[in-house]
Amino acid sequence: MKEPIRLNQTNLAHLPSSIARPGYDRSKLEAGIIHIGVGGFHRSHEAYYTDELLEKTGITDWGICGVGLRPADRKIAEVLKRQDYLYTLIVKHPDGRIENRVIGSLIDFMLGCDDPVAVTDRMASPITRIVSLTITEGGYNFNPATGKFDFKNPEVKHDIAHPDKPSMVFGYLTEALRKRRAAGLAPFTIQSCDNIQHNGDMTRKMLLAFAEAQDPSLAEWIAEEVAFPNAMVDRITPVTTAADIQLLEEDFGVKDEWPVTCEPFCQWVIEDKFCDGRPSWEEVGAQFVPDVTPYETMKIRLLNAGHSVLGLLGSIHGHKTIDGCVADPLFATYLRRFMDAEATPVLAPVEGVDIEDYKDSLLERFANPNIKDDLARICLESSSKLPKFLIPTITENLDRGGSTDFATLVIAAWCYYSDKGTDKDGKKLEIVDDMKAELHKAAAGTPRNKLSFLKLKAVFGDLANRKDFTDEYVRMIDALYENPDIARLMQAQLFGRE
Ligand code: CS2
């Protein structure tokens, strides 16, 4: 076997011909975009669209500078630096076909924890016109029980008192905007790319709460001048595995320390609301619309909630991946019934989208056997996902007297999962969640108080007080604690009582 070629700028020209690579001159690019949170999803989505645009148009002002705020981002910082910020996007088709492309839109990376001033200076440079974010659903510091910014967070207290030494995203954004205002510059657009309904509005609300506490006149300026477009983002991007790195090396002859794998499907629907210009991403498939709400709701309540339904039920059953779940007819049927009976009735029509086709396509995407999306990734940080993905569907159905039973079993399963930390056969499940201890404590109280788990107001709001929900929940909890064979309960749900 020939020695694999290390991925970097000098070696680009020598890569095997089966690997697509940037045809544009990266040395001419300027970073009009700063992106905070360079995980797999940013690299398979915004960086991918931008790479396509640079390739198609030859424009030079919309390169991307990545930013990591925390010490945990050091690894990606170092890998990208060694590779001149290049990485391979491995697109895996359902029929086994693989397309590799080296992405060139990322041209720099900065670590905020090493030098926060350098990062806010860069954000305040006139070259920067968009700061985009993938900071996860939990990164917005939003308290679902109060609907407000969480000022109890010690990091918030620190950042309010130390504007020049921020540690969280809101501290960075506020400081950078302060510098821009002082320099007489227009502000940048803040563009959220997280799976949160009205992600732009949410970012605005949280940033204004923070800025108001630190500098009320600046908050006023932000409220008037900064644009926060809402967007729906979509591309399934599993965690990169050692096998992906090996595949690239052995089958394609490229040594890339941290490639990204993803499905072929890709979607980005954005509100056209930018305060200092934007790339013409519509030239490479993004859609600009006046109101993104119906697209976001549809995606979050079908795709993301669908993932959580499979993730929690599947974990207890002993499935490992999303495709493994949907290859099991019971799980595929259950998912479809959840979508049809509970998610669809609380969705508004989406212009140009046939909702039945959309659901069919989700099941096909989930079935892609080459994606192997781990249930552990799906269940990660469920405490910040379910309040956005699933609980609104439950409460809206309760309000309109609709069905909630398919979703209720998922909440009961989540309680069992948080309490026992095992599947139905007692095999340990790795739970990763910022609220892991609280979830466990509340769930472990179930034998004494059946509603103990639901009393976590920060997750469930006032679901514990809704008798129209709790009666069925308690029945499911009883059944599950008596016998955790989740398939039996799913069957009962689908085909009638046990
Ligand atoms: C997943 C998402 O995190 C999750 O639970 O549902 O990461 C999902 O794969 C993406 O939103 C797809 O666009």
Give a short summary of the structure.
The protein has 498 residues and is α/β, with parallel strands linked by helices.
Question: Within the largest sheet, what's the order of strands?
Answer: 7-4-3-8-11
Q: Which hetero ligands occur in this complex?
A: D-mannonic acid
N-to-C CA distance: 58 Å
**At the fourth CATH level, what is the homologous superfamily of the largest domain?**
NAD(P)-binding Rossmann-like Domain
**Overall pLDDT metric:** 97
Total count of strands? 16
Domain count: 2
Helix-residue proportion = 40-55%
Overall structural class, as computed from helix and strand content, comes to: alpha/beta
Can you tell me the residue ranges where pLDDT is under 50 for at least 5 consecutive residues?
A: none
Instruction: State the shape.
Output: globular
- State the major sheet: 5 strands, parallel
Number of helices: 21
CATH class of the largest domain: Alpha Beta
Any idea what the radius of gyration is?
A: 23 Å
CATH topology (level 3) name of the largest domain: Rossmann fold
Q: Strand portion, in percent?
A: 5-15%
